Amino acid sequence: MRVGIGYDVHPLVAGRPLVLGGVLVEHTSGLEGHSDADVLTHAVIDAVLGAAGLGDIGRLFPATDPRFKDASSLEMLATAVQAVRAAGFRVVNVDCTVIAQEPRLSPHLGAMALKLAVGLETGNVNIKGKSPEGLGALGHGDGIAAQAIAAVEEV
Ligand code: MG
Questions:
Q1: Which domain holds residue 106?
Q2: Which of 44, 47, 105, 153 is the most exposed place for a label (fewest CB within 10 A)?
Q3: CA dist., res. 60 & res. 101, Å (int)
Q4: CATH classification of the domain holding 103
Q5: CB under 5 Å of ion ligand 1: residues
């Protein structure tokens, strides 16, 4: 059994869709980034890659690569999990926290967990929404951050 940790943050800007855990969440702004900027899925990708000793998301999906412009992060997750499998591991479970002042995430957490479970090929996905309580850049709604931890086992 091995574990990996993931963290990501993206700025919130007007005129972008807000995609979290592969779910389109209704909001007045969305996350900025080269791909669909799905901050939660990016943290999960880093966690599973880290657990398998495969570096990080930037190594597998360079931000300079035009193939990943507006790419679906769920598809990137599926590719990352394939790499984890090729390295001889399967994902056991993933636990994550999304830190967002707005919007309220609790109505969407179940749908996010289902989407991530498909990509991770495990039903053991847990997601928590956390408010930054108005503190700092995240508390002012400048962006959204996510943390994830993953366990993998040798197959
Ligand atoms: Mg990212």
A1: 2-154
A2: 153
A3: 30
A4: 3.30.1330.50
A5: 8, 42
